[in-house]
Amino acid sequence: MTLDRYHPYALALLRIVAGLLFMEHGTQKLLSFPAGEHGGVALMSLFGAAGLIELVGGALLAVGLFTRVVAFICSGEMAVAYWMAHAPQNPFPVNNGGDAAILYCFVFLLLVFAGAGAFSVDGAGKPSRV
After folding, report:
1. Residue 119 per-residue DSSP state
2. Cis before 91 (ω within 30)
3. Which of 59, 77, 80, 93 has its CA 20 to 30 A from that of 86?
4. Are 78 and 101 in contact (CB under 8 A)?
5. Residue from 4, 1, 11, 5 nearest 119 by CA
6. In sequence order, what DSSP letters do the residues of 20-73 get, joined into one string?
7. For the chain, which residues score pLDDT lower than 70?
8. What integer best gives the mean pLDDT of the chain?
9. How many domains does the chain have?
10. Is 125 inside any structural domain?
């Protein structure tokens, strides 16, 4: 028995968890929940646009709808966030607080190429490859 047969389920778990955590960043920016330093930003600002991408993109990724396109947009947002907000502070991600942005960027980039995995709206009605 190999673990390859569980690939679609592991990918789905990664997609769902990453989407929910990403969505939380959007709720913090736009809805001030949970309360934090980035709460209550104006929607018509760069931070507001980021919050909207995080909220809507995270929700779409969690359910697996338009996964590849949404993951591409979210990956790009995280690349921009890293280079605009984190990298200018310090060249080392552990010191500039950008390690999460880098990780999100590459997790979402993986989803662009790998797809949604199991338990997704994108894959509803398709025969399982397991």
Report:
1. S
2. no
3. 59
4. yes
5. 11
6. HHHHHHHHHHHH--S--TT-S--TTSHHHHHHHHHHHHHHHHHHTSSHHHHHHH
7. 1, 125, 127-130
8. 93
9. 1
10. no
Spell 68-106 as b/e; 16+ CB within 10 A means b: eebbbbbbebbbebbeebbbeeeeebeebebebbbebbe
Instruction: Give the contacts of 27 (CB within 8 A, at least 6 positions apart).
Output: 33, 34, 55
pLDDT one-digit tens code per residue, 71-109: 999 999 999 999 999 999 999 999 999 999 999 999 999
* pLDDT for the residue numbered 127: 61
Identity of the amino acid at 76: G
Domain span at residue 32 reads 3-114
Q: Is residue 130 part of a domain?
A: no
Position 48 in a domain: yes
- As a whole number of Å, the end-to-end CA separation of the chain is 13
Which pLDDT belongs to residue 30?
A: 92
How far is it, in rounded angstroms, from Cα 23 to Cα 57? 7
pLDDT score recorded for residue 91: 93
pLDDT at 51: 94
